[in-house]
Amino acid sequence: MIISFGLMTTMTMYLRQLLSKKSKKKKSTISITFPAWFPRDFVDAHLLVQGFAVIISLIGFNIVYFNKEKHFESLHSWLGGATMLTFGLFLPFTGFGFDESFSKETQNKIVNLHRVVGTFIWRISFVVILSGILKLYSIYNSTS
To answer: What is the Rg, in whole angstroms, of the alpha carbon atoms belonging to the chain?
Structure first.
């Protein structure tokens, strides 16, 4: 479930390089054609990919929650819940970096805070993925 945060965000970072103006100036041997519905701006692509990540994570969380008797009994579940909570608490404040009623200095501070918290969420998502893999490994090795 939380894999979507890690992988989708990594995909967004690569899309940023592909969509940036600098990469258009360089002569590249790689030609990538995006679908017509895919946004050409990095911010729009970031929103689209993160939106998919949220939807996939909520579906995964509901599947696990309604099909399991005991909840939040492992490090994996606690870290995953904390990651989703951090993302959910931070989500309403992300658009303020583009609000023109704020000064440029305040906008830059908000964007930098967004980067720091986003990087934290991205890194902790890989810890959640690894703890889930280790949990599965220990379950399958204890039964054999």
So the answer is: 18
Residues of the chain with pLDDT > 70: what percent? 69
Buried b or exposed e, range 121-137, using 16+ CB within 10 angstroms: bbebbbbbbebbeeeee
> Measuring CA to CA, which residue among 54, 53, 40 is closest to residue 11?
53
Q: From CA 132, how far away is CA 80, in angstroms rounded?
A: 9
- Domain of 64, in residue numbers: 3-143
Q: Is pLDDT of 68 > 50?
A: yes
Look at residue 80 in the predicted model and tell me its pLDDT.
87
Distance CA 130, CA 136 (A): 10
Q: Which residues contact 54 (CB under 8 A, 6 or more apart)?
A: 87
Which of the pair, 140 or 144, is modelled with greater confidence?
140
**What is the tally of structural domains in the chain?**
1
- Are the C-beta atoms of 61 and 84 separated by less than 8 Å? yes
Average pLDDT, rounded, for the chain = 76
CATH number reported for the structural domain that contains residue 11 in this entry: 1.20.120.1770
- How much is the pLDDT for 6? 55
Per-residue model confidence (pLDDT) at position 74: 86
Tokens of 111: 């964007």
